Amino acid sequence: MLVKTVADFYFISAIYAPSFFIASKIVYSKQPISDDDEIVQQALQSLQSMAKKFAIPAEKIYCLIKTDPPRDAILEIADEINADLIVIASRRPNFRTHLLGSTATAVVNYAKIPVLVIR
């Protein structure tokens, strides 16, 4: 049974790979991720598959892959679409992040709109 709704649902996955990183005092350089990369296509397919599990009409679902840090990607899209609410899952919490995951903590701290954290 599909739910009747006027809301649009955006499913977002952020794949962040900095253009360089430092390990053992050696700087490694990587090519930035592009929309054509296999990892982006696999992430999009996975996101679309997950979104189909919800009782939401297909025309109300948008799946987006961003190649930015997760906090930045989520907040940027929320601003762009004038979102009313951000729903985010929290996993791998630790004491430093006050029992939320680091991405969820960052989104809660910087969002201009309400955030619902799901565990």
What features would you describe in this structure?
The chain has 119 residues and is α/β, with parallel strands linked by helices. Helices cover 29% and strands 24% of the residues. The protein has three helices and six strands. The strands form three sheets. It has a two-stranded parallel ribbon with strand order 1-4. It is globular. The two termini are 25 Å apart. The model has no long low-confidence stretch (mean pLDDT 81).
Please describe the topology of this protein:
Elements: E1 9-14, E2 20-23, E3 26-29, H1 38-51, E4 61-66, H2 70-80, E5 86-89, H3 102-110, E6 115-118
Helix pairs in contact: 2-3
Produce a short descriptive summary:
With about 120 residues, the chain is of the alpha/beta class. The chain is built from three helices and six strands.
